[in-house]
Amino acid sequence: MKRMPGRDMVPDFSDELVGRLADAEELAAARVALGRLRKAEREVFTLCVWAGLNYAEAAEALGVPEGTVRSRLSRARTRLRKLTAAEREPPSGGGQLVGDDRANAVRSKQERHS
After folding, report:
1. d(CA 6, CA 8)
2. How far is it, in rounded angstroms, from Cα 72 to Cα 15?
3. What is the pLDDT of residues 49-86, one digit of tens each?
4. Does some domain include residue 114?
5. 43 inside domain
6. Which residue range(s) make up the domain with 61?
7. Interatomic CA distance for residues 40 and 70, integer angstroms
8. What is the pTM (predicted TM-score) of this model?
9. How far apart are CA 78 and CA 103, in angstroms?
């Protein structure tokens, strides 16, 4: 037995796979929810959260006051949380709690680092 080569351990990939499936499910729900936002909310969300613009930059890009950007972004986040949660609910009517992690995911870089 000593002369036989040792067996390499194969890593268990099941946890990673489950995580990837959950991420894909959440991303799909977010895409559907994003499509249900009003155009103005979707534009502000995309500029501030995905493109990383600050409020002033987004306001300049859209030609609106900075306060308008802030209020639209706030409404967009609130609606996205609700729509994403509704999209992920099982058909049986059971719900799933929306955690702080999902709420932080819709924060802009500027707000996460303040």
Report:
1. 6
2. 38
3. 989 999 999 999 999 999 999 999 999 999 988 888 88
4. no
5. yes
6. 38-91+98-108
7. 12
8. 0.58
9. 9
